[in-house]
Design brief:
This protein is of the alpha+beta class and 703 residues long. Helices cover 19% and strands 33% of the residues. Among the domains are: 298 residues, Alpha/Beta hydrolase fold, catalytic domain (Rossmann fold); 49 residues, no CATH class; 141 residues, Prolyl oligopeptidase, N-terminal domain (Methylamine Dehydrogenase, Chain H). Helix 1 packs parallel to helix 2 and helix 3 packs across helix 13. It is globular, with a radius of gyration of 26 Å.
Amino acid sequence: MAKRALLLVMSLLVLAGAGCGREPQPPLAAVLPHGLTIHGDTRVDDYYWLRERGNPEVIAYLEAENAYTEAMLADTRKLQDALFAEMKGRIKEDESSAPWEKDGWTYYTRFVEGGEYPLHCRRPGGMDGAEQVMFDGNAMAAGHDFFSLRGVEVSPDSRLAAFAVDTVGRRFYTVRIMNLETGLVLEDAIPDVTGNVAWALDNRTLFYSRQDPRTLRSWQIWRHELGTPVAADVLVYQEDDETFACRVARSKSDRYLLIASTQTLSSEYRILEADDPAGEFRVFQPRQRDLEYTVDHQGGRFLIRTNLFARNFRLMECPLDQTWLAHWREVVPHREDVLLEDVEVFSDWLVLTERSGGLSHLRIVPMDGGPDHTLDFGEPTWSVWSELNPQMDTDVLRYGYTSLTTPRSTYTYDMAARTKTLLKQQEVLGGFDPADYRAEYVHVRARDGVEVPVSLVYRLGLARDGSAPLLLYGYGSYGASSGAFFRSTVLSLLDRGFVYAIAHVRGGEELGRQWYEDGKLLRKMNTFTDFIDCGRALVDQGFTSRDRLFAMGGSAGGLLVGAVINLEPDLWKGAVAQVPFVDVVTTMLDETIPLTTGEYDEWGDPRDEVYYDYMLGYSPYDRVEAKAYPALLVTAGLHDSQVQYWEPAKWVARLRALKTDDNPLLLRTNLDAGHGGRSGRFRSLEETAVSYAFMLDLAGIRR
C-alpha cells in the first residue's frame, strides 16, 4: 500500500509539473526494479512496472506525459491547425473508389462530406443501377472513439455479407451477418475473433479464425452455420505450434477453401472443396523447415509460388489430386536478380508481380504459349500492384499504381490488346501540380560496399547547398519493402522546403530475398548502418546537413529510429518514433506477449546466448547511455496489440533519466487506439500534424 500511495503522489506531482511545461520525472523510485539474470548477465529494468495496463497510476503517468507534450508543443498550436487544415483541404471529401464487378453487381466505396469513414455500396449491373448502401461506416462508428470495419465478405449468392467490427483498437472483432436484401442484421454474432472470414458455397456456412486471447496469435479456424448458436460452432483446425499463425480464405476460382498456416520460414496449406463445408480439410503439402509456399487454383491444376530451391521464389504446378511436393512441376523458373512477389491467376493469363532493381513490375504471361511482356511506367521510382480482380474469365487486369509525384491510380489493362485505361486517380485539391515536384532514385554505397537504393522527392528549385531540411523514412524488417507511395500529407513538408526520402535498407525485400536475409537475425545491424549511411550520403550530396536531418519510422521502423540515434546521435536534428518496438530483449523473452513466439526467426531467440548478446547490442532500451540525443517525439497506443504501449513509455523514461542534453523528449500516448493510431479519415491527420509541427519547429519553420 505504501508503494501504491507513493506512486500515486508521484503521478499527481508529475501531472502538476507537466501542466506547467516542466519535464516529468521518470518514476524510478515508485516500485522495486525488475531484475532478470540470463546467461550470467543480470538486466535491471527500473520501469518494468509500466506494463500494468490496469493500474490507474500507470494511466496517470501516461496522462502526465501527454500533458507535458501538449505544453511543450503549445507554441506550435497554430502551425498544427494550419497543417491540419491544408492536409484536410487536399482531400476531396465526397471521393469514391473505382468500381469493380462480381456476380452481376458493381461494388465501390464512397465518402460523404464531413464523414470519417467510407460507405460500402453496390449497384445491380453497372453504375447506372440503383445504389444500395451495405454499410455506413459513419453511422456504425457513432458513439465510439475508435472504429474499425473489416472482413466484409459477400456470400456467393450475393444475398448476405459478413462483416467485423472493432471499437477498441486491440483487434478483437465481432463478426455479424447482414441480409443485403432486407438490410437487417442477423442474430448471429461471433465475438472476440480476428475478423478473417470465408464463405462456403452453400451460402449458410461461414469459416472464421480466432486468436489466442493471451498472445493474440490467430490459432484456430471455426465453422459457423447461420441461425445456430456460436456455442455450437465446430473447431475445424487448431495450430498448436506457437511459431505459426493461421487464416482461412476461398480460392479466386471459388472452388476451394484454403487454410494457410504460416511462420517466418515455413508454411502449410489445407484444402477443402468449397461446396462440401462439412468435409475434412486435407494437407496440401506437409510443412518443412525453410519451405514456403502459397496455393491458388486454375482449371485442372493448382499453382504454387514457392522458394523450393529458389531463394527468390518460382511458380510451380501440380494436379488437383496429387498435391505433395514430389508432384510439383515448374511453370515460371527462378531468377537470381528478380523476386517473384505475387501471382494473379486468370483463366487464360498469369500476372506476375516481380521486383527487380528495387522496383515492382507487372509481367503478363499468356497461357497459350505466346510471348510475355512487362508493363513500363517511365518514372524514376514507383509502386505497382495487382488490385481487385475477382473475375477469372477475362482478359482485363485491374492494377494500382503510384509514385512520389503521382497520386494513387487504378487502371484496367487489356492483356490481349495491350492497352490501358485510367479508371480513377486520387484527386488532390488545393492546386497540386505534379510538375512542381521532382522525384529521384539514387544509390548510396554502404560501409560494406553494398549499394542501398533511396527514393526521394522535393519541390523544384531546391538548392543543393545543405540548407534544406530532410526527412528520412525507413522500415527494413519482415521482408516488407518500403514502396514509393504518393502521400498528399507530405506536400505540407515539401512546400515548406523539406526533402522527403525513403531509405530502402536491408531487412526489406526491395532487392530480393537476400536483401531480407541480410537484415535480420545476426545481420540485423545492417538495417541500422544502412540507414545511417544513407543519411550521411544525403548530407554529403548537399540535400541537407546534420543540423537539418530528421529520421522517422514506425513499429519495427521505430526500432530503426531508436537504434540509429543510439549509434550516431549527432547525425540527426530530430526524430519521430511511432509506436516503436524498442525493448527487444525483454519482449523476445516473454512468450505471453503477442507476436513473440512467431518472430524468433526474425529477431532470434534470446534464450540462445548468441542471439541474446547480439540483440543486447542494438536494443534501443538497453543501449540508452548518458550522452546527448537529438530531439525526439515518441508515440504509443494504449490498446496496441503489436507493440505494447509500455515499450515506448519505458524507453522515454530511461532516456529522461540518462540523457545529458536539453533537447525536447516527448511521449504522446493515444489512450483510445491501438497500433494504427486514431481511426477515421480526418482524425488521423491530427496526429500527422503534430509530428510535422514538431519537425518544422525544430527546423525553424513556423508558418
